Amino acid sequence: MATLAVVDALAKHWWVLLIRGILAVLFGIMAFALPGPTLLALVLLFGIYVLMDGLVVLWVGAGSRAWWLVIAGILGVIVGILTFIYPGITTIALLCLIAAWAILGGLLAIVGAIQLRKEISNEWALIIGGIISILFGIVLVANAAAGALAMVWTIGVFAFVFGVMMIVLAFRVRALPERLKKLAKGV
Question: I need a surface site. Which of 124, 125, 140, 183 has the fewest CB within 10 A?
Answer without folding.
Answer: 183
